[in-house]
Amino acid sequence: MTAPNAFPVLSSKSELEEGTVFAPRFDTNGLITCVTIDAHTNQLLMVAYMNAEALRKTLDTGTVWYWSRSRQELWHKGATSGQIQTLVEMRTDCDQDALELRVTVGGDGGCCHTGRLSCFYRSVQLSDGTLKLVQNSK
Amino acid sequence: MTAPNAFPVLSSKSELEEGTVFAPRFDTNGLITCVTIDAHTNQLLMVAYMNAEALRKTLDTGTVWYWSRSRQELWHKGATSGQIQTLVEMRTDCDQDALELRVTVGGDGGCCHTGRLSCFYRSVQLSDGTLKLVQNSK
């Protein structure tokens, strides 16, 4: 018997890389890494994780669900903030252990809980021999 | 005594999110997630991981080093293929547990071991009630 959210599992490297079967590879915690990108601007918005249930809900609803590692619960992104992420395209990488989510964003168009548009709002810079974080335009 | 590759550790959420100290948060395996993007085209190239040593080598050399989870060794990206990734900008996210690497790529400009420019060369599509992978233009 398979779990209701189960996805196919492939062990062949060539099937994983060249086949047409979507067989997402979850890690030992049951999670897969997601890179979320604004489909219009191509801006990197955030990195988060899905378990099989979150992935299934995302595919079923067309809006993005993650697994919150800090809260240990399913997380319908934007449910409280209005920053709902509508899935435009989902891509996977060669060995199917990461997902690229191309989305449009509701509400104010942002994603970060600090109020910035993107979570990647700081750059690492070397200044007087010390690494510092400097706010970038995001 | 600190390890030679050690980075600062911050426990305060406000310092992590709003401070100027770069304090990358490695997971229980000692790794941090890296999202690598072509600085010219803004294209998502790959997702990979660094340990503290790989991160230090990247900052010291200006070219990208990862930790290969499959081979369990340091990996100077492009050392054999010529697809060296030169770091243009490194960004971190709000809670400093992910890095955005904006790079220019040597050799043929690609990154995927399958020969494609990007590792994200397939889209997930629903066809006749079944999820299928379809090659995209990457």
From TrEMBL, chains A, B:
Cofactor(s) the record lists: Mg(2+); Zn(2+)
Cofactor mode of binding and number, as noted: Binds 1 Mg(2+) ion per subunit. Binds 1 zinc ion per subunit.
Pathway(s) annotated for this protein in UniProt: Amino-acid biosynthesis; L-histidine biosynthesis; L-histidine from 5-phospho-alpha-D-ribose 1-diphosphate: step 3/9
Swiss-Prot/TrEMBL keywords: Amino-acid biosynthesis, Cytoplasm, Histidine biosynthesis, Hydrolase, Magnesium, Metal-binding, Zinc
Keyword Amino-acid biosynthesis listed: yes
Transmembrane segments: none
Family indicated by similarity: Belongs to the PRA-CH family.
Function recorded in the entry: Catalyzes the hydrolysis of the adenine ring of phosphoribosyl-AMP.
Record: residues binding Zn(2+): C94, C112, C119
Catalytic activity: 1-(5-phospho-beta-D-ribosyl)-5'-AMP + H2O = 1-(5-phospho-beta-D-ribosyl)-5-[(5-phospho-beta-D-ribosylamino)methylideneamino]imidazole-4-carboxamide
Coiled-coil region: none
Signal peptide start and end residues: none
Listed Pfam families: PRA-CH
Binding site for Mg(2+): D93, D95, D97
Name used for this protein in its record: Phosphoribosyl-AMP cyclohydrolase
Subunit structure and binding partners: Homodimer.
